Amino acid sequence: MRNKVIDVQEAAAMVPDGATMGVLGGGGGLVEPDALLAAIEERFLASGGPVGLRVVHALGLGDRDRRGLNRLAYEGLVRKVIGGHWIWSPRMQALAREEKIEAYVLPSGVTSQLMREIGAGRPGLITHVGLGTFVDPRQDGGRMNRSAQDTLVELIEIEGRTLLRYLPFPVDLAALRGSYADADGNVSMEEEPANLEAFALALAAHNSGGKVFVQVRGLVERGQIPARQVRIPGALVDAVVVVPDQRQCHAFFYDPAISGQKGGETAEEEVQADEQEGVAASDARAVIAYRAARELYENAVINFGFGIPDGVAKLVAARGETDRYYQTIEHGTYGGELLDGALFGFARNASCMIDSPSQFDLYSGGGLDIAFLGFGEMDRTGNVNVSRLGGVTVGPGGFMDIAQNARKVVFCGTMEAKGVAYEVGGGRIGIRRYGQVRKMVEDVDQITFSGRQAMAAGQEVICVTERAVFELTPEGMRLREVAPGIDVQADVLDRMDFAPVICGEIAVMPMAAGD
What we know:
515 residues; alpha/beta; Glutaconate Coenzyme A-transferase; ten-stranded mixed beta sheet; seven-stranded parallel beta sheet; 12 helices
């Protein structure tokens, strides 16, 4: 009889100094082994160890306060972080800003797939994802502060094609989470909102000669987990930590609809269709959502990014049109009701859940028809920045893997930020107060999406704002439509740091059904 169960303090005591630790999870507590991370924090505060950890995570981790990656954000405890998304951990962001750690960012899909390549013993991940962006070694190579000096990615040529090779490295420890484990260490994820890269991380650590620790809610007898429900085989698991009060996410304890275990209507209060469809409420986000949704077409495979693009998903749901498209989330989820805010990445009553490396295979291979994504900055050549804003390390999450590969990219966002105010009604929008931060800039601070690369790949790229619609052309960003009530010169051109291309008649941007 194998007995792999240990308490969480024992697990934390087994973390060696200088270990490279891969951590599973997504923002809001999605599949996050928070008890394991809390025990490592407790040990460090009590004894000063472990020290010098190198932490790798594909998605964001935490609650923007204390949990998740925030638990490791101590000078000395962590030496280096390679993270896909950082906003859920302001404490780690502060360490990066203060040069107290080496800070790196790689795209989430790249990171999750790299774990699979490491586990398979292959020579890293060879891909086009990241070309022309800040992870390209001809730019920053994924380095986000001065302390970051390592080389994570290099250029290679294959049959005359320039590609990136993300370099492999040994993984000493994988900190994972599942739902239940049996006596042999087989782990199910039946009550989790996603699978993410759980197997890939376990494979990377095990085949690197490292350890695999899995936090679960409970134990079952041998044979009680059906073979098809085992997501992490016991052969890869070194230790199981049982946390009976493990929550499905930070917001609530457990909802079977979130893990695809229960069908039927969502418990969420329904959004009234007239509030979304007619854009009668004074909401510039709804204006953007309505216009962006006009880019949809029947049976399109689509993805919605974090932030304002959530409004498009809500509009589709309010119209009862979710069955007209194939909705996907980079976490590996298809269909269902997409949640937003701190629960971005969760879906109620999903139709399918696969692992995230496989989902990113779909994206990188060109299987995504339309991506609705936000933007922090956009410049005259169509470059977009979402990864470093105001000097703060944000990270792109799955943005780069998605944006670079979708046939059509619809960027959704306001033209300005910080203090902007609107009047919306009667099929018109007016600007009551301009914002303090312009988002249409001469040159973005960091290239997360390359306009030049998009043109070379033949992508269709448009940008929908509350005032105007732009499209990417070989000559640069072209002003295509202006919303009713907007003064082209005062509200659009004078609020941009570059002059867009204007050719032919500027169309009227649709504001409501029937326009």
